[in-house]
Amino acid sequence: MNNADYKKYTTDRAKRSSCLLNSVKAFFVGGFICCIGQALFNLYLWWGADENTARTLVSVTLIFAAGLLTGIGVFDKIGKFSGAGTLVPITGFANAIAAPAIENKTEGKINGVCSKMFVMAGPVIVFGTLSSAIYGLVYYIVTKVL
Amino acid sequence: MLEYVRVFLVGGLICVLAQILIDKTAMTGARILVSYVVLGVILSGIGVYQRVVDFGGAGATVPIVGFGHALAEGTKKAVDETGLLGALTGGLTGTAAGITAAVVFAFLWSLMFKSRQK
């Protein structure tokens, strides 16, 4: 094995192990956040909410918590560790709105907070509503026209 | 207890898939979120995602794919009730609480906290 081969070997190994390690972290943090969600869901059911209300309340609670953690600077640290583990749950969506809002407050309410809020969430909402509208049209044609 | 194992597995696996996409294809976080929401609408529309929700509970609804599922469910309900107009009203009705909470709280946090320089 010459130097070039060895270098290739080490970089390959480094990449693979870091992807594996990142995946393990994402799995545990993501799974844990979902379990908190399930615990909250059961709590709200126990308090007498119906399933849909409980599910909505879980989202609202996690969004509240993720935004608060973003504000005190903790979310960023957890996010660096867990990668997709905090990005993919609804916490990532809340962070994507709260972080730029806080970050750009020096630019003022209108041009800073309110417009920068949607830098990352905008595309999510646009593609989400767009695909739901297309789905609605298809669903209408399939169930009511055909 | 078994319920939480299922939640953990489903939620964890959805996150792992995103992590692999980030590491192997250099997709950014924003692209992951957009793809997952659209994927959620499609999977929900063809009737697959409801089964994932039945199995994995919050493991399926807490990830952003569940946001797409909520968009599709809202649309379906609205189309059933009001016809074609539902295609325009249903999606945001189904996700109104989430979007409004995210915006209202973010505004509140921006009043309370200062930005941190990295």
What does this structure look like?
Chain A is built from seven helices and no strands. Chain A starts with a helix and ends with a helix. Helix content of chain A is 88%, strand content 0%. Chain A has a domain of 101 residues. With 146 residues, chain A is mainly alpha-helical. With 118 residues, chain B is mainly alpha-helical. Chain B has one domain. Chain B is 84% helix and 0% strand. Chain B is built from six helices and no strands. Chain B is globular. Chains A and B meet through helix 1, helix 2, helix 4, helix 5 and helix 7 of A and helix 1, helix 2, helix 4, helix 5 and helix 6 of B.
Features:
heterodimer, A: about 150 residues, mainly alpha, B: about 120 residues, 6 helices, about 0% strand, globular
Q: How is the biggest beta sheet of chain A arranged?
A: none
Which bin fits the share of residues in helices of chain B?
Answer: over 70%
**Of all protein chain pairs, which has the greatest interface, and how many residues does each chain bring to it?**
A-B, 76 and 77 residues
| Class per helix and strand makeup of chain A | mainly alpha
Radius of gyration of chain A: 21 Å
Q: Please state the structural category of chain B.
A: mainly alpha
Give the SSE order of chain A as H and E letters.
HHHHHHH
Mean pLDDT of chain A: 91
What summary fits the major beta sheet of chain B?
none
Q: Count of helical segments of chain B?
A: 6
Order of helices and strands of chain B: HHHHHH
Oligomer: heterodimer
Q: Please report the distance between the alpha carbons of the first and last residues of chain A.
A: 67 Å
Low-confidence stretches of chain B: none
* Percentage of β-strand residues of chain B: under 5%
Number of helices of chain A: 7
What integer is the average pLDDT of chain B? 93
Q: Give the end-to-end Cα distance of chain B, rounded to a whole number of Å.
A: 41 Å
Could you say which overall geometry of chain B the principal axes of the C-alpha atoms support? Answer: globular
Shape of chain A: extended
